[in-house]
Amino acid sequence: MKRAIVLLPLAATFALAGCGDFAQSPDYYPRTISSGFNDEFRSWISQAADQCEAITPSILAAQIEAESSFRTDALSPRGAMGPSQFIPETWEIWGVDADGDGVADPYSIPDAVTAQAAFMCDNHRRAAEGVAAGTLEGDPLDLALAAYNAGFGAVQRSGGLPAGGEYTSETQPYVARIREREAVYLSSE
């Protein structure tokens, strides 16, 4: 089943938040808009989110906003590239040629978003398995986001959401920011 991201004006989003059953429906999730959000992102986010149930279009969109503000040319001081901010070592593992142009390009919306979703689905699967086995504590989605930011090894070593040093100043706020930014997107499945 395809998932689509439906964008609503901010006022309508707040109005829906108090509208009884509609606002409480599990089929609707609030999300956010960035000035760089466009139809190409929307289309590829919806397609990429079909890779697994746990990673919704709204999570991917909020994550891209947190990573790059939807900038395809983003390059971090640490070498993370493109809208989904893959470091070269991670791109070597997860990079895909989703648009069929013959190149797996971290600056390409189709390639980056498809790889991001696959990586997040794997992180979520591993986190959910760890929580079920009792080796990890926390919400599997929060742990998957933390793993995207800090690496799954950091999540494993911490037994859950990493804390201390950069984990407290970078990873924890990263997870919180993405979960908060969902509050302005509306996604329906």
Question: What can you tell me about this protein's structure?
Answer:
The chain has a single domain (about 5-189), classed as Orthogonal Bundle (Lysozyme). The protein has a three-stranded antiparallel beta sheet. Helix content is about 55%, strand content about 5%. It has helices at about 10-15, 20-25, 40-50, 55-70, 90-95, 110-135, 140-150, 150-160, 165-180, and strands at about 5, 30, 185-189. The protein is mainly alpha-helical. The model is unreliable at about 1-35 (pLDDT under 50). Helix 3 (about 40-50) runs parallel beside helix 6 (about 110-135), helix 4 (about 55-70) packs across helix 9 (about 165-180) and helix 6 crosses helix 7.
Rg is 16 Å
Strand percent estimate: 5-15%
Shape: globular
Q: Please give the largest β-sheet.
A: 3 strands, antiparallel
- Termini separation: 7 Å
How many runs of DSSP E, i.e. beta strands?
3
Count the DSSP helices: 9
> What number of domains?
1
Mean pLDDT over all positions: 83
Q: How do the strands line up in the largest sheet?
A: 1-3-2
Order of helices and strands: EHHEHHHHHHHE
CATH architecture: Orthogonal Bundle
The stretches of 5 or more residues where confidence is low (pLDDT under 50) are 1-36
| Assembly annotation | single chain
Q: Tell me the CATH topology.
A: Lysozyme
CATH class bucket: Mainly Alpha
Structural class: mainly alpha
Helix amount: 40-55%
